[in-house]
Structure formats: C-alpha cells, structure tokens
Amino acid sequence: MTVSSLERGSAVELASGSMGDRTRRTRHARGLFAGISSNYDTPAKLFGLFQYRRWHRELVSRLAPHTPSLVLDMCTGTGAVAEELLRQTDSRIVAADLTRSMLKAASERPGLRSPRVSFIETDAQSPGLADGSFDAVVFTYLLRYVEDVPTVLSQLGRLLRPGGVMASLEFAIPNGAWHPLWLLHTRVVLPLGLRAVSRGWGEVGGFLGPSISEFYRRWPPDRLEEAWREAGFGDVSTSRLSLGGAAITTGTRL
Fold first, then answer.
1. 222-244 as b/e: b if 16+ CB within 10 A
2. Distance, CA of 44 to CA of 49 (rounded, Å)
3. Residues near 67 by Cβ (< 8 Å), separated by ≥ 6?
4. Exposed, middle or buried by CB within 10 Å (0-12, 13-18, 19+), for 154?
5. pTM metric for this prediction
6. What are phi and psi for residue 199, nearest 5 degrees?
7. Backbone torsion region of residue 8, taken as left when φ is above 0, otherwise alpha when ψ lies between -120 and 50, otherwise beta
8. For 165-182, what is each residue's pLDDT tens digit?
9. Which of 27, 117, 132, 254 is 20 to 30 A from 182 (CA-CA)?
C-alpha cells in the first residue's frame, strides 16, 4: 500500500501490502464522498439533527477506558472521530480513508494539527496493515459500503492485538412510533433538503435512507453481532442512541 503524502508522524510506518481491487460498492462510496468532501461537516450536522457530535463522543467513550496506545480510525472522513479521539485519549491515531479528498479535508482540520495523528489512504476490505498493530480500531458508516461484511470484520479484527477493542457507529432504524418519522426524514426531508445544498449532496440524500433499510434487511442487529463473534470478537454488544436512529457496536479481540 502506498502511504498518502498527507501522512504526519511515524505511526503509519507499520503499513505494507497492496490496496487490492475496487468493488462496486467501494467505487460507489469513493465517488459519493469525493463529491461532498469540500463541504461535508455543516450539512451532515444539520441533516443529522445535530446528533453527530454526541454520537462521536459516545463512540470514543467506549474506547477511552482501555487507554489504547495506537488507534486506527478507519473511514475517518473529514476527521471528526479522530478529533474526538484526541480530546478523550492520549492515543496516537492513524486516520484512514479510501477517498483522498476526504483525507485532505481531515489533514486541514484545525483540531487535527497534532503530531499524534497520521493519515493513510487505504481500503477496509484490504487494508494492507500488519497483524496485531493496533490497540483499538474504530469505524463509522462503513459496512453499508462493502461487499462482504464478515470479511471486512475479520480484516479489521486481525489488525488488533489480542484483547484490543473495536467499536463501530452506524445509522439505525427506530422502532415503534418513531419509525414513520424516520421514514419521513430519510425519504423526503433528506432528499429534498440535500438536493438544495449541491448535486453531490443530492445524491447522498437519495441514497442514504434506502441504503440503511437495505443494510438492515441483510444484517439485522442479532445477525450482525453474530458476524462480529465469528470474526473473532467476544463481549459483543450493541446500544442504540437518539431514539434508535444510531447504533454503536463494540467487541474485544479474542
């Protein structure tokens, strides 16, 4: 794998291997996010009903008690979770993404101007990083964009030392009375509102809601937790946030 020229620090010196072939979902994700990298944060906060920061705090709080020395932030995007890692931990952070323009935006984020942060361009499906390199792995909104969920969980798991912790954040589907409101938000408000922001955001707005529904048809929570266990994780648990609109899953590498 080629280390991005955006690299800072020495944490990514452990990287080696090849990027691997791009799948259909990977190519789609790269194209989708390349079109919104220059103005990602504000629309994401607005149409996420200002819950993103809270979700990121909760996600990182699952790692902080483990005092990890080196953390991989896969799918870092513009670096919001990496910034929260800097706030809550003393860890060194490798911020990774497959979209170069997103990594560039992350590298220019004021809150990430730290020698503890390095940047690397790679794909979660074939990360090309050494086994057992990290004390913790965190990823956000990843699994909807990959072809083979079990393989990706195994690939990320092998990067952890035994006893290392992995945590993920993903959109979820509320139950009960909140479900019709979620459908209204994801099928009407998001497509119309984001279309007004830009063409790229309009594509995201039309894709997001159906992609969440399709993912949970394939991977309901109990089946997804079982996939984590089959990938070599114990103590797997999932908690819901924001009336069920988001889910954090954690597990410990056996």
1. eebbebbeebbbeebebeebbee
2. 8
3. 89, 90, 91
4. middle
5. 0.87
6. -65, -45
7. beta
8. 999 999 999 999 999 999
9. 27
Q: Which two tokens stand for residue 170?
A: 């993903």
How many other C-beta atoms can be found within 10 angstroms of the C-beta atom of residue 100?
16
**pLDDT higher than threshold 80 for residue 236:** yes
What's the whole-number average pLDDT of the chain? 87
Structure tokens at 126: 């074939």
Domains along the chain with CATH numbers: 11-253 (3.40.50.150)
Q: What is the layout of strands, in order, in the sheet containing 160-171?
A: 117-121, 92-97, 70-74, 134-140, 160-171, 246-253, 233-241
pLDDT given at position 211: 93
- What is the spatial distance between Cα 11 and Cα 29, in angstroms, rounded to a whole number? 26
